[in-house]
Amino acid sequence: MIKMQSEFWSNWSGSQQAYPKLLRPNSLEVLQNVIRTHPKIRVIGAGHSFSGLAQTNDVLLSLDYFKGVVSHDDQHCQSVVQAGTHLYDLGEKLAVYNQALMNQGDIDQQTLAGAIATGTHGTGIDLQCLSAYVEGFELITADGDLIWCDALHHREIYQAGRVAFGSLGLMTKIKLQNRPMYKLKEQIRSCPFTEVLQHIEQWKSQHRHIEFWAFIHSPNVILKTLDETNQSVQPKTEQILDEDVFLRICSELTKSCPVLNPALQKLVSLLVRPSTAIDWSSRIFPAVRETRFNEMEYQLPVKEGLACLEELMYCLKKHKVPMFFPIEFRYVKADDIWLSPFYQQDSISISIHQYYRQDYVSIFKLAEPIFQKYGGRPHWGKLHTLGGDALSTLYPKWDDFMHLRQQLDPEKKWINSHLEHLFWGRSD
Prior knowledge:
Layout: E1 9-10, E2 17-18, E3 21-23, H1 28-37, E4 41-44, E5 59-62, E6 69-73, E7 78-82, H2 87-95, H3 112-117, E8 134-140, E9 146-150, H4 155-161, E10 170-177, E11 183-192, H5 193-206, E12 209-214, E13 220-229, H6 243-256, H7 261-271, E14 275-280, H8 281-284, E15 293-301, H9 305-318, E16 327-332, E17 347-355, H10 361-373, E18 377-378, H11 388-394, H12 398-408, H13 417-424
Parallel strand pairs: 3-5, 4-5
Antiparallel strand pairs: 1-2, 6-7, 7-10, 8-9, 8-10, 11-13, 11-14, 12-13, 12-16, 15-17, 15-18, 16-17
Helix pairs in contact: 9-10, 11-13
């Protein structure tokens, strides 16, 4: 018997809060029984989604007891991993079998299932989001039944379910296509934004990974590249000031005295020293992200990305928004997952962040129409205001997904108010 009582819950940034009945089933049988006997259920990963995907005052399930590698296939370089495994643990667990994820983002706090459900990604023109490397998954349906989905079994559920934000069922095991372990050389430097605009088309093909962070009041950006190497491990160069500490201090100063923001942003290029580091992929991808924020992210067609970024920066600068955080710019390769933001579209990903102690709504209201003007699709785990009316026009397989969802969950067991808006609501 699982004790049922309401607990306070919030996501990492604090923007989503609720009092759910938080349950942590310790076996597959108990988990199935909970699903069979409760009419409304959501699942919590690590709470790193900024949107209301997990918000509920009904049952909120945690997969804390579902961690680790279940099996591995040396010949095909694949592993079956339990859905509650955190990304920060996964690298070491896969290393035992000489395997590594194809790609990662710079935050590794998420659970595997949560990252996959929302289309979490890194950067690289030849690299897809994490969900595209899922070869199959075990799913508990709304009836509590257990099914395996891959290209041969329950193919439609497999095609739709790799990015479904927990609306088709609950993933318990996930088969990943990995690759042998590899090292990456990370290079970070400050450079003029004009130089990036001039050379980015060339640079994006020269590097396995490339991204940059642009400040609305600074002529310089922070450019980061990662490339495979066989060189020995080389620790990161110590900066003048810890990046996370500097970010928090400047955000607090901008909050207290917005007029300081332009000067603070221009100071960044003076403090960022060129640095080089080499390490195994799972260790070099993640960055320290302790300063909390709220985030909006849209995926744009590649040909629209730079124009969108320039208009966005012009707009935010014109309105003198008190936002110290830079704008992040990345590349992601297309995939075939029905509701992936990268469905049949090589994309540029643009993210804006606002310090968690500052108002983000007014800034995101300025940015979102610009993202939409250039045909952007929102990241499912980030903040946006689109409802089903607008989203259905952005996804060619939307109606197919909705039909499948209705078949699997006619009683809307997996639907909370946020998903109600995503699927059937009108855009704000």
